[in-house]
């Protein structure tokens, strides 16, 4: 059955009849544990559709297990075992949503939100009778958000959390530190916020989240069953730290411009310096308590160009040990697999490059001569990261650049001439453009180089890097309409690559996006509602 729901449910069947949801309906007195979920649903329906559910009949909720869909593969970012499987039934007399946990019921109500959006006409949504039994393929389904290159304030981050929630994504990975800035308070290191946080790319405003703003964001996400995972990127991508604490800086700081706001740094933290470790401990001690839901700390580890393999491994191993000593698990970009890692660590795979088909002649022509060999060597090493991670017993978080880097330019023109300027400006040109259809033409197990079984994958995470992204509208235009496709890869057991089927479901999403004032690329590939 082709329901206007993304991600596609594990199973669904149609029956005869329908139920018309209107303003006089609502959730019938829910069990106490589901009161919050019921309130959230009514508030979300109002924001998605303008329909205010003022009654208390029509929709019943129950805490009842669902076990006729497979359990999720992988690991949850909150480290728990929460079951997200749920059922949703529409009959002539009303609607019933059930699952064994509040989160499961919330996921079921999220499908109902989408059904109401798709069927609403003149204040009434006539929902065809039927039954959905659903649950996720992977336990970790996320978005990595770069808040450094452009600082996205708390209001914008809340809008992004709302998007994640509408597509049953359950992780917001905040990339809080990078060469250009630092976005989080560390009370024992005031120069991070007094100095490093002021930076961003070009003359974009800097900024950081205060401790209370972060606590509010984390709570806002938790209410929507989204876990916020913090990333402190090291030992590369740390130039902003050096501006604040020059005693940590290497002798020479070298920056290479790659165009479009992107740059490359050949300056890294030094594992041989005692001060480095005092700093890392201060940062971890300040940050870990700010993310109580997260069982993980992301330690970065990527692109430590110019550093020896030995130094990089020594750094990763010590930083990872400090995270584990604080009771948290380690997640890092795929380069951490070049160090000795633990089976409980998660390796985030991104460099899905095929070296043989690469055209190094197309590298930026103004690249200094000594850099191309460094880049090529990095790509060669990257081919071994996934096998190394798996050999160490660790598992993979799938973020392949080909399909999940949303800073790839949009390929297809838009039906809105006002968006064409932004479409052509946004994204890193060296990636080459991708269509929305390209974004769903893969599978998170089959398509990953070096991966051969679903057990090796803990989940799926899209990434949005903000070198080319300046405004909130830019950010949303790069996230939508791609985000639902990433969510589908993380959730749906059966990989849909049939564009006609998928784009019919995608077309319905624009109704809620319009009501929520989210900017999306009105790609001509889709017949938007
Ligand atoms: C690589 S992906 C980076 C980022 C850039 C991104 C641009 C990764 C772990 N590091 O620093 O912003 O490419 O797509």
UniProtKB/TrEMBL annotation:
Molecular functions per Gene Ontology: beta-N-acetylhexosaminidase activity
Name of this protein: beta-N-acetylhexosaminidase
PANTHER family registered for this protein in UniProt: BETA-HEXOSAMINIDASE, BETA-N-ACETYLHEXOSAMINIDASE
Catalysed reactions listed for this entry: Hydrolysis of terminal non-reducing N-acetyl-D-hexosamine residues in N-acetyl-beta-D-hexosaminides
EC number: 3.2.1.52
Top-rank lineage group of the source organism: Bacteria
Pfam families linked to this entry: Glyco_hydro_20, Glyco_hydro_20b
Domain annotation Glycoside hydrolase family 20 catalytic: ranges: 138-355, 383-493
GO cellular component: membrane
Active site: 303 (proton donor)
Stored InterPro entries: Beta_hexosaminidase_sua/sub, GH, Glyco_hydro_20_cat, Hex-like_dom2, HEX_bac_N
Domain (Beta-hexosaminidase bacterial type N-terminal) ranges: 4-134
Transmembrane intervals: none
Similarity annotation: Belongs to the glycosyl hydrolase 20 family.
Keywords: Glycosidase, Hydrolase
First-level EC class: hydrolase
GO biological process, one term: glycosaminoglycan metabolic process
